[in-house]
Structures are given as C-alpha cells and as structure tokens.
Amino acid sequence: MPRGSTLEKLEKEIERLSPKDQLKLVEKVARQLRKSGVSGKRDLDWNGLYGLGKGLWQGEDAQEYVNRLREDRV
C-alpha cells in the first residue's frame, strides 16, 4: 500500500475523533517524537505541521476549552 494512501486514511480517521481525543493524539505523537530523538527547530520542519489542527476547535468557545483542559489536569 502506498504511503500516501495510508496517511490519507489516518487523516480521515483523525477527523472523526473528538477535539479532546485529537489533542491527546497530538500529545502522544509529540512524546514519541521526543523519545526517538527528534527535538529542536533544526530536527523538525514545523512548516509541515501547518494546518493539521484545522477545525479542531471549530464551534468551541476558547475560554471553555481552556477551562476544560485545566479540569482534566486535576
């Protein structure tokens, strides 16, 4: 299976996740990247991440989102 089609399937599945689960996934991937030695501006092309969170907080009040994140940390 070509790599592009696998990535496209993953992107479609991610879009089906709730914003909270999408955020958890991003955090988990970031931890895995740190463990693999990817760190700093030189190692990671941040421009490649542009637009990945599009629509993640669509229709959600920013303050309510922040309050919910703070509650989850307790």
Descriptive keywords:
single chain; 74 residues; mainly alpha; 0% strand
Q: Can you describe what's shown?
A:
It is built from 4 helices and no strands. The chain has 74 residues and is mainly α. The protein has helices at 3-16, 19-35, 40-43, 62-73. It has one domain (3-73). The model has no long low-confidence stretch (mean pLDDT 82). The N and C termini lie far apart (43 Å).
Structural class: mainly alpha
Mean pLDDT across residues: 82
Distance between the termini: 43 Å
Question: What about the largest sheet?
Answer: none
Helicity level? 55-70%
> Approximately how much beta-strand content do the residues carry?
under 5%
Low-confidence stretches: none
Q: From the alpha-carbon coordinates, what is the Rg to the nearest angstrom? A: 15 Å
Number of strands: 0
Number of helices: 4
Concise account of the structure shown:
By secondary structure, this protein is mostly helical.
Write the layout of secondary structure elements.
Layout: H1 3-16, H2 19-35, H3 40-43, H4 62-73
